[in-house]
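Could you help me review a protein record that somebody else here produced? Here is the record exactly as it was handed to me:
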Amino acid sequence: MTTHLSPPAATEEHVENIVRSGSARWARPALLAILVLAAALYTWGLGASGNAYQYYSAAVLSGTKSWHAFFFASLDPASFITVDKPPLALWIVGLTARVFGFNTWTLLLPQAIEAVAAVAVLYVAVRRTAGVRAGLVAALVLTLTPITVAISRDNTPDPLLVLLLVLAGWAGLEATRSGSVRLLVVAAVLVGFAFNTKMLQAYLVVPALVLTYVVAAPGPTLRRLGHLVAAGAALAVSSLWWLVIVDATPAGSRPYIGGSSNNTFLDSVIGANGIGRLGKSGSGDEWMGDPGVGRMVNDFLGAQISWLIPLAIVALVVGLVLRGRRARTDFPRAVLILWGTWLLTHLAVLSFTSGGPHPYYTAPMAPALAALAATIFVLPKESRRWSLPLAVCASGLLAFVLLSRTPTFVPWLGWLVLIATIVAIAILPAGRWTGPAVAISLVAVLAGPTAFAVVTPFQRIIFTNPLAGPADTWKGGPGGKGGFGGDPNGPFQDLDSSTGDAAGYRKMLAYLDNRRGEATWLAGVPSSQYAAPMILRTGKPFMAMGGFLGSDHALTVAQLRQYVQQGRVRYFLLYPGKVPPRFADPVIAGWIGQHCARIDPSTYGASFSPDALVLHHCQ
């Protein structure tokens, strides 16, 4: 007689793991639906965006005309000055523009593709660590995070930054799982690429990667530390190679480094775009709110990113408590350490630094927020019975508060969220994880960010400061709707307009083009905000004498005199009256006013308002 042995009874946790990690038939269609939703949100109506944020767009156009300008990320084709960021994001867009031509879609579609790719990578990373269900929730949350939608429709470097960091997080988790130094080095190189996208902001994920590996990777302590040393070397090389080449190039053979005080990229990294940015105040950025625990939920930043912070924090705390007594190498706990440290590091830096963060600085926090928010839905059943109501309650109430700040935008939505929150709190402790319970919980926590995400493609984009949601959300920014005290692209933002001074400036540009001769630059202008639209209009070089806002000391009087004597530049635009020193170098302006003749606009058939810039000619 043959005896058949039945397998041992499966524990609930074992069954849960099978369900979470299995390849369900509905997983791929669900993921495809999320990616299609992301693509729609990130690309709908992009064709109406024109040249987007003209500062970066001018650098892309210049890079299509000169490989020298391409490599150094110069603002103009003649490479007088660089933009204030490393070149990697501009290289990707610039190569696209070289192949397919320079237009709105080549400027913005690569950004949208990078953002959709980040959603897909996050799904894979979370699925491999917490299962299909958690991976789908994480992908959906990242897709619907309002600031993610905003940056994906813009031409700042942030979509590429987020993609590279999510890839680094995935590689770091796989390195921790296996103890692989190769994968750890890959994670470090990806962070180095992110550094060459947006400098020191990329390094905010380094504490999470290091702590996760040193705590949870297999192997002896010395071996793990040795792996981290190797990864550190890879991080240094992949971060600094471009910086070293640029700073080693003689100043006369390259453009001035925009945003620096001494014409080195190292100073730009450490100063204006590094420690200096974190510590500065009184810069016009304090409108983001005073430093403190409340900054991330204030009137301006809260609706961009913070909807699910309570949900993520509850998931992190509960998950760590549940796995507190496991072995050092317990991988689910390592996953919580990575995403939790990632989230908390960003929260601390963004909340407590003196310089006010722009809203899009919060975008790299979104993957960790999404991954942790998804985690709570796959906690063990008994823990979920009380932790999920707590998390839904906290996030639902925060959503009600955030929605109440935009009373004219879907006025009933906040009350719907509040009702859904109350109902979810009532039914979830009973442990009935049914379809209606899931639906009500998702309404409570996702209705608010979903509404802000969906409305974003239909709002006017402020390209210097990408923002999501209805226009009511932006009222806190200077200049209205999130600008910086004026139009983000300067007075030439719409040279095709039939109003204002646009017609006069078009005539002036034609006048300059006809008289360029052998000059390198058609004209010198106070700042990049003036040069960029002219470069985009003509495709010709304009010298941004003062860099981004006119405060860079990129030009000395001696250099200016030499350029004029050599005939490299003969025309200059100056402010007509007294302006703040930040927006013009009074020494340079004084020399031009003394040695160059003022040209009456009637010479080229134009007339301007009293505050229009004045054209000067130097013999």
